[in-house]
Each structure stands twice: as structure tokens, then as C-alpha cells.
Automatic annotation (TrEMBL):
Name this polypeptide is given: Alanine racemase
InterPro entries in the cross-refs: Ala_racemase, Ala_racemase/Decarboxylase_C, Ala_racemase_C, Ala_racemase_N, PLP-binding_barrel
Catalytically driven reaction(s): L-alanine = D-alanine
GO molecular function, one term: pyridoxal phosphate binding
Native source organism of the sequence: Acidihalobacter yilgarnensis
Amino acid sequence: MARAAQARIDLDALRHNCRHIRSLAPNSRLLAMVKADAYGHGLLPISRALADLADGLGVACVPEGLALRAAGIAGRIVVMQGFKNDDELSAASAHALDVVIHEPCQIERLASRTFGPQGGLSVWLKIDTGMHRIGFAPHEVANVTALLAKLPMVDPNLRYLTHFACADEPGSAMTAQQIGCFVRTTQGLVGERSLCNSAGILTHSEAHADWVRPGIMLYGASPLNDTPATSLGLRPVMSLEAPLIAIHTYQAGDSIGYGGTYRCPVPLRVGIVAMGYGDGYPRHAANGTPVAIAGQPGSIVGRVSMDMLAIDLGSVDCRPGDSVTFWGGSVAADLVAAQAQTISYELFCAAGPKAHRSYSTYAA
């Protein structure tokens, strides 16, 4: 059953952001990250809109890659977690998905294969330069490269990648250390390189290398702490909206919502909106978290409920049925995320799939 929340997806803004990223890394290929349902924006519509602008698409898992192939997307698709079992390996090989190799058991599975297309599997080797999540330690890379070179079903043209842990903190020594580690580890190895996520694209142009891997920038939010997306030349892609369902006037001292945690400092016009944590809106959004009512500024008061929340309407001329915008347009998702002590990534991934999504058309 459809709920009232609406996520309006601006594909022109998406394509603008992609072109802007290309201008920042003009000598690199672009692997657009569309994992996690394209950060809540919709895997297939987003991937189709990026297909002619990006050099490849990045997904988290083999099923995501297979969904793109089933939809007719024929370009390069890189599975960032690689394959997890023999069935996924077979599917990746059969559907020409690139796989990231990060774990010895993946090599064991490849070595045990007695069939498969000669040199048909494109492999990216993940190097753990300090993130300590997945990947081979630097001292293992030369040996792993040699092992992969002996496997007949692996394309001999290996690619190497790593992931930054602190690139969202400009000036962090950690990122420079990771870049240095990656350069030393891959010195003398033949193959394309990829280091930079969205934050790295902005802060470490010296590490753009052969491929950049933008994610959150594509969707119009900032990857850098305390740096607004608009100042980075990005446009918001998702606008999350829901209707007003009631308007009341309360007196000074009246409490609003669960726990009575908010008390009106003066007589207050309060709007109730059909939006809550059941729609993916963060329960911990603080009093004062911005919204827009009929294009005018407003803010949340009281605790967010499962299906409803309250907003201070001020003097805005509005009535039940009017739309309230929770992020997008004049309401920055990054600011909402900060008020809820989270990040824009989580906002999009939580709310986007639960809302009714609609998509603008775009000019190719």
C-alpha cells in the first residue's frame, strides 16, 4: 500500500553532477557508484540516466549487477564485494561482470574452476592501505597478483584499487599515508589504478589515477565535513515531500508530541505532516531541523513519530494538503543529516525506497 511520502528524482541534476565530476577529474575514467539501490534513488532509472555519461557502474553485489544486465545495460559493471560463492562466480562470469578480489577464498574458488571462458573474468584487486575493512595487505599483493596471473579464466589485465578511510576530513594525514602506501605497493605492477571516492576526487587530485569512483556527489550531497554541496557545484537530485494533514494553534507552554519534550515558547501554529520514521525520516531529527512549506522555511518541533511529525508553520499561508519538503531544493540534505546526527547517505538509503519515487525527464 502506497504511503504519502514522495521522492522526486531530478535526472537533469544527476547528469549535471556527473558532468561536473568529469570536469574535476578530466583525465580519469568515471565509475559511477549505484550500489544500495543507487543510494535510495532507484537502481535502474539512475543507471539508465548515467549509462552514456559514465565509463562504468559500481554495485555492491552480484545480484545488483545481474539486475542491471537484465535491464539491458551492457557497459562495464564492477561488483565491489566480488563473488561470495560458486553460484555468484558463475553468474559474474556468464554476464561479464567485473569482480573485486579481496579475500583468499575467492582465489581458491577461481583456482578450483575447471571450466569457464579463457581470460573472460575481469578482476580488480583490492588493497587494504589502512581502511582495514576488506582487501589484501600490502605485503601480500605481489604474491596475489602472481597467483591470479596463473588462473586461465582471469583476464590478465588486472586493475588495482583501494578505499580511503578519512578523505571526508580535508587535511587528514591518513589519506596521504594511504596514497603513499598504494603507490609503493603497486610500483612496478602493470594495470589501471583507482583510489578516489567522492571526497578524494575533491581533495586529492594527485590520486585521481585511471579511475575515480564518485558516489554521494552524484546525488548532490557533500562528501566533505562542513562544506555545503552548493559550494561544490552540485545540485540535489532527491526531493522528499509529504502533505500537511492538520493545522492547529497551541498556546505558550503547550507540549508537542511524545514525551512532551517540546513546549511552545509562544502561541504557535503547528502543522502535522504525514511523514515519520516509518517512511525513513530520521527519528532523531532535532527540534529546529529545517523543512520548507510552500517554498517557505519551517522547522520540526517535538519528536518524530512513526507516521507523523509536527512542524512550526510560523506565518506561512498554507492548508492541509499542501506539500512539505524535507530535503531537496532549499533544504540541504546535509543540514538535515547533521541535525539528526547522521549523514546524507543514510537519509537517502532509508527514505528513498519507501517513498513513491517519480523521475523527471532529461535531455541527453
